[in-house]
Amino acid sequence: MNEPIETIEDQTLNMNQIEDGYYYKHCHFESISDSINFSDITFDHCDFEQTDFSRVSFTNIQWNHSQLAGSDFSRSNWYNCKVRSMQLSGTDFNNCYLNNTEFRDCKLAYANFSDSRFEKIDYVDCDLTGGFFQALKVKKTVKFPGCRLTDADFGETKLKGFEFQNSEFDNITISPELSRGLIVNQYQAAILIGIFGIKVE
Fold first, then answer.
1. Does 94 score more than 80 pLDDT?
2. Are 149 and 170 within 8 A, CB to CB?
3. Beta bridge partners of residue 14, listed in sequence order
4. Gap between the Cα atoms of 99 and 196, Å rounded
């Protein structure tokens, strides 16, 4: 991301006043229903009245410390983004395209990423409890270091390129026939054996 053109701080703005290349800090954004695309922007400790971000494209975005639990990001596109310390529990990311994007220290419990396309995605130190990752189409890797994945659902997703070994879970849903190439640690392997009903004697 390039150096910001200007920092806008402690202002109340409409969404259509957001300009590409700017750094917005402690701003309040009033709602507007128009479809918007964002590029080369930092949102830092901003709050938003709008909860519908469906079909929006985000390119080279850094988004830090916003409360957007339950928002709609379905069919949105993410390119080269960093999303940090966000409250995104229950958020709908269904049918998204995410490329070279990182979620770090985010609350994503029960978020829905099903039917999305992933290309080089990292979740770092995130709470993904009960998250939905069903029927994903994946290129390259998906990593989950430091994440909580208990009760997450990866059913109908080919898990080649997924790395669970540095995450934690005590229950998880995966399709055994699609698990080839999944990387887990020894403790997780024992959990999966139990989930699949395999007995080791």
1. yes
2. no
3. 30
4. 32
Domains and CATH numbers, the chain: 7-195 (2.160.20.80)
Give the strand pairing for 137-143 and 47-48. Answer: unpaired
201's enclosing H/E stretch is none
Instruction: Write out 173-188 in H/E/C secondary structure.
Output: EECHHHCCCCECCHHH
Q: How far apart are the first and last CA of the chain?
A: 55
Cα–Cα nearest to 174, from 150, 160, 154? 154
Whole-angstrom distance, CA of residue 99 vs CA of residue 118:
6
Per-residue pLDDT reduced to its tens digit, 147-171: 999 999 999 999 999 999 999 999 9
The closest of 99, 71, 74, 76 to 86, measured between CA atoms, is 71
Q: Contact, 150 vs 172, CB < 8 A?
A: yes
Q: What is the enclosing helix (H) or strand (E) of 195? A: helix 186-195
Contact of 167 with 147, CB cutoff 8 Å = yes
DSSP 105: S
The position carrying tokens 């990311």 is 93
Secondary structure class of 192 (helix, strand, coil)? helix
